[in-house]
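Is iron/sulfur cluster placement plausible here? Inputs below.
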Amino acid sequence: MSKKIFIKTFGCQMNVYDSARMQAALKMQGYDETNTPDNADIILLNTCHIREKAADKLYSEVGRLNAIKQKRAEDGKSTLIIVAGCVVQAEGSELLSRMHGVDIAVGPQNYHLLPELVAKYDRKKGRILVADFPADSKFDYLPKHDAKGPTAFVAIQEGCDKFCSYCVVPYTRGCEYSRSVREIMDEARHLVETGAKEIMLLGQNVNCWHGEGLNGGEADFGDLVRAVASIDGLERLRYTTSYPSKMNDSLIRTHGEIDNLMPYVHLPVQAGSNAVLKAMNRQYTAEEYLDIVRRFREVRPDIAISSDFIVGFPGETDEDFEATMRLVEQVGYASSFSFKYSARPGTPASLMKNQVPESVKSERLTRLQELLLSQQKAFNVGTVGKQLPVLLAEKGRKKGQLLGYTPYLQPTHVDVDESLFGQIVNVKITGATASSLTGELK
Ligand code: 5AD
Ligand code: SF4
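Reply from A.M.:
I modeled the complex. C-alpha cells:
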C-alpha cells in the first residue's frame, strides 16, 4: 500500500501554491495525497499568521489531529505531524512547546528540506524546527509540479520590504526576492503543458518584481507579464497582489494590449484617510490611489477592481473611517476583503497607544461591508444579459452543473455536461446575486 499525505492549507494563495510544491516534493518519496487525515502517514498543516484568528485556528486543529494520531498509534500505525508556514516562522520553538503532537516544524523558506527531514526523522532524537532564512533559494531544489486543474499558480516574487506597520509578512516571509524570468517561464510552460488554461502569478507585491529579461536587459513586472502571456496555449493570465504606488504605466498599458490578460486587478488600499495611510506606512495617499484606478480604467474601462481594507487601525477616528467610506464610493469595487485591525506581535502598530475598541471596529466593519457588498452586487447585476467566456474550473453544487469564472473572476454556476470541466465556454448570464452569477451555455 502506498504511503499517504493529508495537507490542510490556511491563509493566502501563496500558501496554496507552497502546499502544491511541498506535495510534489513528498510525492517523489512515495507519498500520495489523501483527502482525510484518518488514513494519512503524514499530516501537513500549512499555516497563516496574518491575523489573530488565523493563528488561533491552528491550535484547535492540532488538538483534533492529535486525537487521530493517538487513535492510529493504538492500531500500530505511526503518523508524522508537520507544521509549515508563517506561524512556524513567527513563533518558532514556542510553537513546538505549545503543541506536543507536532513532530516537524518548517518555515516558508525551508520547504525544499522536507523530503530529507521526513526520511531521516527519528522521534527519539527529538522533534525538529527549521525556521532560518537560508542563503540558497528553495526554488532551486523543489521538483517541478504539474497542473492539478485548469488554474495554476506560479510564485514569481516572495517576501516584502515595505514594512506596513500592522503586518507580519516582512518578518515571516523575509525580504523581497524575485525569481528569474527563465525559472518562471519554465514553470509556467510546464503547467500549461500539463493542462493549465489559466495562470495566476503570485507574490506579496508582484509589481515590485524585477530581474534580467530574456534578452539580457533589466526587466520589470510589465515585461514579465508580456513574456508569460505569450506562452502557447495559455488562455488566461492573472496576478496578485500588487502594491498601489508601484503600478507603472508599462504595467497598466498591458491591460489594454494583451488579450489573455484578464480585466481584473486586486489593488489593496487598506484605508481612505491619509493620516491612517501614513500611520500604516503605506506609501501613497488616497488621491494617488484614485489616480491609479483612473489610469487603469482609461486603458480598460470594464476592468474589475478589488481591494483589501482594514478598519479600526490604531488612532482611526470617525472622520478617518468616513474617508474610507468615501473612497469606496468613488471607486466602486467589484469585490473585496475587509478585516478588523488585529494587533500582531512584533509589529510597530501593536505598540501604538491609541488602539480602537473592539465594538467600534465591529460597527465600522459592518457598515463598510454593507457598502462593499452592495457594490459587488451592482457589479454582478451589471453583467446580466451579457455573453461571457467562463472557465469551468470547479465542481457544481449539484449534478449536471459546474462552477466557472468569468474574466472578471465572478463565480458562475452553469448547467452543463460535466465532461466540459476545464473548458472555456460561452455563457449567457441570466442571474446575479452579490456572491455569484448563473448562466446558460450559448
Ligand atoms: N490586521 C488586520 N488585517 C491585516 N491584514 C494584514 N495584516 C493585518 C492585521 N494586522 C490584511 C491586509 C492585507 C491582507 C492580506 O490582510 O488588508 O492586505
Ligand atoms: Fe504586509 Fe504591507 Fe508587505 Fe502587504 S505590502 S505584505 S500589507 S507589509
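Short version: Residues 305 and 333 are 5 Å apart (CA to CA).
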